[in-house]
C-alpha cells in the first residue's frame, strides 16, 4: 500500500506514521530521515543538501525530489510505503504522481489527513516543557506537571521558543497556506480521507487503520 500522511504540526504525524507503517509492514519514509541518511552517507545528493542546510536555507525541491525518488527505488519500498512530510505542496504532489507512474508503474492508494482543531494543537505544543539536562519532554497537562523540575533527573524544565503560543499559531498559519491546496489536490484525486486526530493515540490509530482496511490485500 502506498500512503501519504498529512497534518498540521502537533497532529501526531510521527507517532501515527510509525504505528501505521509497522502494522502494514511497509517503510515509514520522512524527508528528515532521507536528508540524514544522504548527508551521513556522503552521497552526491547529501553533499548538495548539506550546502543549503549549513547556510540555513531550504533544500531545493529538485534535490528533495531526487532523494525521494532514490528512496522509493529501494527494495523495502517495492510493495508499499508511507510518506511522512512529503509532498508539502501541489508541485511536489504532481511530481510524485509522475515519478510513481513513470518509474514504478504505480500510484498512491490513499492520503490520510490528520484533522485536529487549531486550539487543540496550540494546547498540545505550547504545553510542552523540555528538560535542559536530559532533554526529556514533559507536558503541563498530560503529565500533570505543576513545577518546572524534571522528575527523571531533577533538571530545570523550560519552554522552547518554537513551542510558545504565538510561534505555534504562526506555524499553523504557514501550514494552512502551504497545505490547504495540497489537501484539495488529493481530494480532487479522490484519494483523501480525513482522520479525527483528537483523543488517545490508540484511538486515532484505530480510526486510521479502519480507513485502510478496505485497501489491504
Overall description:
This protein has helices spanning about 15-25, 30-40, 45-55, 60-70, 90-105, 120-125, 165-190, 200-210; strands at about 1-5, 30, 80-85, 110-115, 130, 135-140, 155-160, 190-195. With about 220 residues, the chain is of the alpha/beta class. A hairpin with a 5-residue loop joins strand 5 (about 130) and strand 6 (about 135-140). Helix 1 crosses helix 8 and helix 3 (about 45-55) packs antiparallel against helix 4. The termini are close together. The mean pLDDT is about 95.
Layout of SSEs?
Blueprint: E1 2-6, H1 13-24, E2 28-30, H2 31-41, H3 44-55, H4 61-72, E3 81-84, H5 90-104, E4 110-115, H6 118-126, E5 128-131, E6 137-139, E7 157-158, H7 165-189, E8 192-196, H8 201-212
Helix pairs in contact: 1-8, 2-3, 2-4, 3-4, 6-7
Keywords: ATP-binding, Cytoplasm, Kinase, Metal-binding, Nucleotide biosynthesis, Nucleotide-binding, Transferase, Zinc
Organism: Actinomadura fulvescens
Binding site for Zn(2+): 131, 134, 150, 153
**What profile does the largest beta sheet have?**
5 strands, parallel
Kindly estimate the percentage of residues that lie in beta strands according to DSSP.
5-15%
Percentage of helical residues?
40-55%
What structural class do the secondary elements suggest?
Answer: alpha/beta
The helix/strand series, from N terminus to C terminus, equals EHEHHHEHEHEEEHEH
Give me the side-by-side strand order of the main sheet. 2-3-1-4-8
Q: Which regions contain 5 or more consecutive residues with pLDDT less than 50?
A: none
Radius of gyration from CA coordinates: 19 Å
Q: What general outline do the C-alpha atoms trace?
A: globular
Question: What is the straight-line distance between the termini?
Answer: 9 Å
Count of separate DSSP helical elements: 8
Instruction: Round the mean pLDDT to the nearest integer and report it.
Output: 93
Number of strands: 8
Pathway: Purine metabolism; AMP biosynthesis via salvage pathway; AMP from ADP: step 1/1
Family: Belongs to the adenylate kinase family.
Protein name: Adenylate kinase
Binding site for Zn(2+): 131, 134, 150, 153
